[in-house]
Amino acid sequence: MTDGGLETDLIFHHGVDLPGFAAYPLLDNAEGRALLASYYTGFSRVASRAGAGLLLETPTWRASPDWVRVLGGSRSDVRRINLESVLFLAGLAEILVDDGVAPGGAEGYDGSGHGPDVRVCGVLGPRGDGYVPGDLTSAEEFGDYHSAQIAAFAESGAARVTAYTLTTVAEAVGVVLAARAAGVAVAVSFTVETDGRLPDGTPLGEAVESLRQQAAPDGLLLNCAHPSHIAAALTVDDSWTAHITGLRVNASRQSHAELDNATGLDEGDIPELVRDHAQLAARLPRLDIVGGCCGTDVRHVAALWGVEA
Questions:
Q1: Domain 6-304: which CATH number of 3.30.365.10, 3.20.20.330, 3.40.50.1980, 1.10.10.10
Q2: pTM value?
Q3: Which of 31, 126, 197, 215 lies 20 to 30 A from 164 at CA?
Q4: 8 A C-beta contact, residue 292 and residue 5
Q5: DSSP-derived secondary structure for 163-202
Q6: For residue 289, what pLDDT is reported?
Q7: What's the pLDDT tens digit per position in 232-265?
């Protein structure tokens, strides 16, 4: 199990202002750390009820060089922010295990699918907007860009990094290459539009196969889309689905453009989400990570696991 839509939960349920959709500034003060600890603790309790392992994933989706600068920091801050995020979650994991809130065991995640029940993972986001592919950039340029954040995660002892909401194959390849160079296990996660294609128009199955041919990651997830949007990419013979290892779905059926323009939070219909997620999961034989994305919170993730929040 992993968590839900951290940023939308903080904004709409806790009234937190997140410039740039960045949650990492909460690590800078005691009040923010307490709020993050409470957030992750809720998922830890659900994981215990479900008998599932728990991935504690850092609040660093926007902690890459360009975004840190936009928020008033410098490139040198990237290392500090990402190191501190892992140390924060490692400390929280120890507390949760000692208090009996977590399933037990707090160490780095080795990407094998085995090992301790609580695993701390470093999170990356896209260089640009999570819904728009942006300018054409080579895989090598993307790898160079993400290398600073990945290096910090490798230094911190988080043995796995995951890049979420990627919109192009080139960026996914770049992330994998940078992680390999840093000696850290890596997962990448594509997002899709309502038609099951990446925001740059690439069919999902084609993107998966292209990524695996160029730089196969240790894990391959899909996030920030409703299950019905991902299902739109499926056909009768989809061998590529055997490579999908995780889902972090949106609660809402709205398109990315509609979500961008929304003034309120669409929390979706939880029973409907559970039904659609189960139908999709049945088509993904290697699925082993389940959490949520925009509009979801601990209630949605608990329901996906069939337990009470």
A1: 3.20.20.330
A2: 0.94
A3: 31
A4: yes
A5: EEEE--HHHHHHHHHHHHHHT-EEEEEE---TTSB-TTS-
A6: 98
A7: 999 888 999 999 999 999 999 999 999 988 889 9
Write down the residue that tokens 């090992």 correspond to: 115
In tens, the pLDDT along 192-239 reads 999 999 999 999 999 999 999 999 999 999 999 999 999 999 988 899
Question: Over 50: is that where the pLDDT of 50 sits?
Answer: yes
Identify the DSSP state of 113.
S
Q: Whole-angstrom Cα distance, residue 32 to residue 112?
A: 32
Tell me how far apart the alpha carbons of residues 63 and 22 are, in angstroms, rounded to a whole number.
7
Look up residue 97 and give its two tokens.
Answer: 């295990």
Tell the residue number behind the tokens 């690439």, with chain if given.
202
SS3 87: helix
What's phi and psi for 292, nearest 5 deg?
A: -130, 175
pLDDT band at 104 (very low <50, low <70, confident <90, very high): low
Measured CA angle at 177 (ends 176, 181), to 5 deg: 115
End-to-end CA distance of the chain: 13
Domain limits, the chain: 6-304
Residue 147: φ, ψ to 5°: -65, -30
